[in-house]
Amino acid sequence: MIGKLNHVGVATPSIEASVRMYRDLLGATSATDKRALPDQGVWVAFVNLPNAQIELIEPLGEDSPIHAFLARNPKGGQHHVCFEVPDIFAARDEMRAKGATVLGTGEPRMGAHGVPVIFVHPKDMGGVLIELMQEPGATVGGHAS
Ligand code: CO
């Protein structure tokens, strides 16, 4: 069921500084504007690569889940990896059936790409926090997403 690598999530204390680093050190030519996702307590911006994106994540608000990560990794660091799946609900059910822990309530939440996502606990994934994301343009239950 696993599909394309969509993005690698990278936590950072400064999206602006990280965008400059990807541009100046690595020659990245395209990045999105920084925008707020208040429900998830993060600012996000994407560095566009030919085959995937880097999702830069900066804390938004006092309760941001990224504060704890940055306390452990003050310069930022690799936070999660996101794969596309054809059906987010089927993926959620399959993860649970196979004994993996889906974070939160398990109800898919709207992610930065405007499609529903879930997160699977790193303890079941070799220490890597995994985001599964509904393939953009896929249909689930007869509704375009
Ligand atoms: Co992500």
Strands, helices and their partners?
Elements: E1 5-11, H1 15-24, E2 35-37, E3 42-48, E4 53-59, H2 66-72, E5 77-85, H3 88-97, E6 109-110, E7 116-120, E8 130-134, E9 139-140, E10 143-144
Parallel strand pairs: 1-4, 5-8
Antiparallel strand pairs: 1-5, 2-3, 3-4, 6-7, 7-8, 9-10
Bound molecules: cobalt (II) ion (CO).
- Helix/strand order: EHEEEHEHEEEEE
Mean pLDDT over the full residue set = 93
Low-confidence stretches: none
**CATH homologous superfamily descriptor:** 2,3-Dihydroxybiphenyl 1,2-Dioxygenase, domain 1
Tell me the overall shape.
globular
Helix content: 10-25%
For this structure, the CATH topology is 2,3-Dihydroxybiphenyl 1,2-Dioxygenase, domain 1
Question: What's this model, at a glance?
Answer:
Helix content is 19%, strand content 34%. It is α+β, with helices and mostly antiparallel strands.
Please explain how this structure is put together.
By secondary structure, this protein is an alpha+beta fold. It is 19% helix and 34% strand. The strands form 2 sheets. An 8-stranded mixed sheet has the order 2-3-4-1-5-8-7-6. A hairpin with a 2-residue loop joins β9 and β10. The protein binds cobalt (II) ion.
Considering the chains and any ligands shown, give keywords for the structure.
binds cobalt (II) ion, 3 helices, two-stranded antiparallel ribbon, 2,3-Dihydroxybiphenyl 1,2-Dioxygenase, domain 1, alpha+beta, 145 residues, eight-stranded mixed β-sheet, globular
